[in-house]
Every structure is written in structure tokens, then in C-alpha cells.
Amino acid sequence: MFTREGWFNSGDLGRFDADGYLWLTGRVKDVIIRGGHNIDPSVIEETLLKHPDVLLAAAVSKPDAYAGELPVAYIQLVSGARTSATDIGDFVQRHIPERAAAPKEVIILATMPLTDVQKPAKAELRRDAARRAFREVLADVADGKFSVDIVADPVKGNVAVISVSGPAAVRLDIENRIHERMKAFAFAYVVQWRA
Question: The pTM is what?
């Protein structure tokens, strides 16, 4: 459990900020941690795949200011299926063995992104979940004149790049509002201004 240098090997990935604080940015293992509850994504995926209209399923974490992470599910339906995300969510709520593992959101994709070995590309889906979470959190900050992209960083893990447009006179106010919303997340971010 301890490295030769004396570090505790928890399986977490992290970074130190300029003030010396350690921020956890992800995990080596594919686990969703919701308010201290460890959730195995396979529990969610196996439940989703029991639905007759679900062809492919992947469960990933979505950043959350209160719980740290929430489980979300991405699915690809079988050809011709007309099931809604709400119907799939209700199905999972009724059939999942762990209540805390029930996904807070089900997203239907036309085509599931896959890795070279034809498994769901979870890194890409985690970035999409983070992008959706931060767009929602920042929706009213800059009158909708912003975009969020999640990019991989070799030191910080994933970084949210928040691009904003607006007059110079309101930039400080908007940046302060962004910082106020984002401080609740253990997720690195940068603010960029567009002309």
C-alpha cells in the first residue's frame, strides 16, 4: 500500500495547487465515488443491459458540488427502439441493486464512442459528463455567452477550459462569478476570453 518513497498508494490521481493543497482529480480504477460511497459502474451497466431496448451502456462519474461525483449513464439503443431516457431511468430505479448507484441522468447517444477494442470510451464520456455539469452550473453567469471544453492535461488530469465573451468592463465580475461557482469542484479549470 505504500511506495518506497513513503507515499500511500490509494489509486487516486491528483495535483498540488500553487498554495500546496492536494486536489484529487480522478482515479486509476473505474470507480464512482458519490459522497464517500464507492460505486462499481458495472452494477449500473449490467442493470441497463437488462432492458430490451439497450444495446450498449456505460456508467461514468459526473462532477457534483455536493457529493463530489454522481453516476450518469450513456446508452445506445437497439435499432428501431423508441424508448425515452426517462423510461430507461425509471427501469434502472426499479431494478438496480444499490440505490446510491442509480444514475442521476441517462443520456441516449445515436452511436456510443468505442475504444480500439470495441468497449465504450469512458474517458471521452467522463469528459462529456463534466462538460454538461459545468455548462449547467455556469448557465446564467455570462448570459449564455460561454463554452466549456474538457481537455486532458498530463499534470492535472482533465481541465475545464471556460471560454467567455463579453465587454472588458464586465470581465472581472464574470470571472469572480465563475470562480465562485467552480470553487466547489475538485476540478482544475481556466477562464479564457474571446474577442
Answer: 0.83
